[in-house]
Amino acid sequence: MKILNASEPGLGSSMTEDEVRNFLSNSKLFARLGTIDEKEDPNVHPVWYYFDNDKIYFETGKNSKKVRNIKRKNNIYFCIDETNLPYKGVRGKGTAIISNDIHRNISIAEKILIKYTGSLDNNMAKFLMDSIVRGESIIIEIIPHFYATWDHSKGNI
Predict the structure, then answer these.
(1) Of the residues 89, 97, 120, 130, which has the fewest C-beta atoms closer than 10 A?
(2) Is the pTM of this model over 0.90?
(3) Residue at 155 is within a domain
(4) Minimal CA–CA distance to 143: which of 81, 57, 59?
(5) Distance of alpha carbon 129 from alpha carbon 146, whole angstroms
(6) What CATH number is associated with residue 120?
(7) pLDDT digits (tens, 9 = 90+) for 35-79
């Protein structure tokens, strides 16, 4: 795991590898994904995510703008950050891989839905799981090239 310090001098410091894994595994924050569209314009997409084995996963409709952009250019930028003091977060660049394997997608989608909704037994989870089972939604896997991190709880603020 390549970690870069993205904190301003005096405001904090970088997270350790264990801190990055803990932050990404346990936070219920949205990930914001940056893709490039057909006009070469940047697009930002907020998504629920699941972090495992140094990779980031999210669910989306197979015909979504995110997927169309990734099919054109599979480079993706991501940012997951705490918006309340003390600020901390992880951002980075990675390669996005589209998974159409329904059985694999089901197991990952279950983890995402349990993380954000607490259960698979609610209307939102059932709706999204049905979409995965029918192949209307897919999973995107991000293989990060690096993690740029900051943690202002370690600084002078």
Answers:
(1) 130
(2) yes
(3) no
(4) 57
(5) 31
(6) 2.30.110.10
(7) 999 999 999 999 999 999 999 999 999 999 999 999 999 999 999
